[in-house]
């Protein structure tokens, strides 16, 4: 579904990504992790076609994003939902207007019809619509804002792919758990492929089917949780050092459950 082929990307001749290659299949949940500044969020911008690499190809359903006209890119983006680190909600719009924004602007549905769909979506992402629908985002907790942002992405384009940029950063443990549960629910119930960028290892192992570790712009690991546990690459070992025991425990449980 999404494939990076030998992608090199630089800002002002400063290398960000170096020979990055990986693939995300249909209904797969991929976690991209690594130290801060390693190029993780840049990958999401490249998938959306907001930037193009100096070398290599980025394919979505076999189509090269960077050889498309802008109208073609817009059609590709309809398959993709994006949840930014800060939620990126519109401060001046109410919760329901945020969730229904795309339909209000780009459909022939009435305001009442959009409102009904927004209310249903708020319920789907685990929020009490009656309590929050008319509030402004600033009156919501960080975790609630992330769930509103996920609801907006789902209602906007009915995506087949969801991109999450540090979805739990800055959240308290309960809010983070709620967001992780929702991400997993979308993957399980709607068969949505997901790419989650994070440096939160505990969250990563709760979400991912497969893991890509990027250090200094290079892919130093690509595999499942058991392979991650067994990796002997010193760069991977250094990044994962505080979490080796947790990774081993979860990997063993998953293996037993599959037997």
Summarize this, please?
The protein is built from twelve helices and ten strands. With 259 residues, it is α/β, with parallel strands linked by helices.
- How large a portion of the residues is in β-strands, by DSSP E? 15-25%
User: What oligomeric arrangement do these chains adopt?
Assistant: single chain
Helical content class: 40-55%
CATH class categorisation of one domain: Alpha Beta
The H-level CATH homologous superfamily of one domain, spelled out, is P-loop containing nucleotide triphosphate hydrolases
CATH topology of one domain: Rossmann fold
Indicate the radius of gyration in whole angstroms: 19 Å
Protein structure class: alpha/beta
- Which regions are unreliable across 5 or more consecutive residues at pLDDT < 50? none
Supply the number of helical segments: 12
**How would you state the average pLDDT, rounded?**
89
Order of helices and strands: EEEHEEHEHHHHHEHEHEEHHH
Terminal CA distance: 28 Å
The largest β sheet comes out as: 6 strands, mixed
Structure description:
The chain has 259 residues and is α/β, with parallel strands linked by helices. The protein has a domain at 1-79 and 198-259: Rossmann fold (3-Layer(aba) Sandwich), CATH 3.40.50. The chain has 12 helices and 10 strands. It has helices spanning 40-47, 70-77, 95-99, 101-106, 111-124, 129-132, 142-157, 173-190, 201-207, 225-230, 234-240, 244-257; strands at 2-11, 14-24, 29-33, 55-60, 63-64, 80-83, 161-165, 193-198, 210-215, 218-223. The protein has a 6-stranded mixed β-sheet, sandwiched between helices. It has a 4-stranded antiparallel β-sheet with strand order 2-1-4-5, covered by helices on one side. Strand 7 (161-165), helix 8 (173-190) and strand 8 form a beta-alpha-beta unit. Helix 5 packs across helix 7 (142-157) and helix 7 runs parallel beside helix 8. The longest helix has 18 residues, at 173-190. The protein is globular and about 55 Å long.
């Amino acid at each position: 579904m999404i494939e990076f082929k030998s992608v090199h990307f630089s800002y002002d001749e400063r290398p960000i990504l170096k020979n990055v290659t990986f693939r995300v299949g249909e209904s797969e949940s991929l976690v991209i992790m690594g130290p801060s500044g390693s190029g993780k969020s840049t990958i999401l911008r490249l998938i959306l076609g907001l930037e193009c690499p100096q070398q290599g190809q980025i394919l979505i359903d076999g189509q090269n994003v960077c050889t498309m006209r802008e109208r073609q890119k817009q059609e590709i983006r309809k398959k993709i939902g994006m949840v930014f680190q800060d939620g990126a909600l519109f401060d001046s719009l109410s919760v329901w207007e945020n969730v229904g924004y795309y339909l209000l602007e780009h459909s022939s549905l009435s305001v009442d019809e959009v409102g009904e769909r927004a209310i249903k979506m708020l319920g789907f992402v685990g929020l009490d619509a009656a309590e929050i629908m008319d509030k402004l985002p600033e009156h919501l907790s960080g975790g609630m804002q992330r769930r509103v942002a996920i609801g907006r992405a789902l209602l906007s384009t009915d995506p087949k792919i969801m991109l999450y940029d540090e979805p739990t950063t800055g959240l308290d443990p309960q809010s983070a758990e709620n967001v992780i549960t929702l991400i997993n629910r979308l993957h399980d119930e709607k068969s949505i492929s997901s790419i989650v960028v994070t440096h939160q290892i505990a969250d990563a192992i709760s979400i991912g089917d497969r893991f890509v570790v990027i250090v200094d712009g290079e892919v130093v690991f690509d595999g499942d949780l058991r392979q991650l546990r067994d990796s002997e690459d010193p760069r991977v070992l250094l990044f994962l050092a505080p979490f080796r025991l947790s990774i081993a425990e979860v990997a063993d449980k998953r293996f037993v459950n599959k037997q």
